[in-house]
Fold:
Amino acid sequence: MDARQLGFSDGTFDFVYERFSLHHMANWECALDEMIRVSSDWILALEPIDDPRNEQKRNTIAAQQLFLDVQHEAGFEHYTHIGSDSLIGAFKCRNLQYEVELQRNDRVIGFDDYFFDFSRFSLATGRPDHWNKQLEALRERLGGGLLCEDDILLIRARKPR
Ligand SMILES: C[S@@+](CC[C@H](N)C(=O)[O-])C[C@H]1O[C@@H](n2cnc3c(N)ncnc32)[C@H](O)[C@@H]1O
Structure:
């Protein structure tokens, strides 16, 4: 079901968590509201976070944008990673007690591994040649530079009692 409109009563679950899903939704705050509503106690969110602190991270942000572009044209919902300030701010303004943990991740990934399912989306656009050219242009621009796994922001929250 759509996470922004869950078919569960208020407080159905002790613990509600999402992993890497909010940034796939327009109006992700509605999904957070639903998580809070259907939880009686704990809420946990894990989201990928961008940080251009080194070349691999910057390459990954460029690669992510190409993925978003092709996915957008293919009709697949996926948006730029939510900024940590926005995500933390959303918990703060909802009057939750929360703890934040940032898991930094610098494990590198090769270009082809990162784009292993690119063709699934480029084919779905109906113009795979165009998107394959974009992919090759990015490969050339990055000049063999590596990509990197995402940092993860983990927010553990409790509803006020
Ligand atoms: C990157 S995957 C993460 C999947 C899984 N949570 C994990 O950690 O492996 C993003 C997920 O968000 C889900 N998703 C996207 N929009 C959604 C929505 N509006 N309601 C519920 N789920 C949604 C997709 O179906 C997909 O399973």
Remarks:
- The beta strands are 13-19, 39-49, 97-103, 108-109, 147-148, 151-158.
- The CA atoms of residues 83 and 145 lie 25 Å apart.
- The chain has a mean pLDDT of 97.
- Residues 2-4, 19-21, 24-25, 77 surround S-adenosylmethionine (CB under 6 Å).
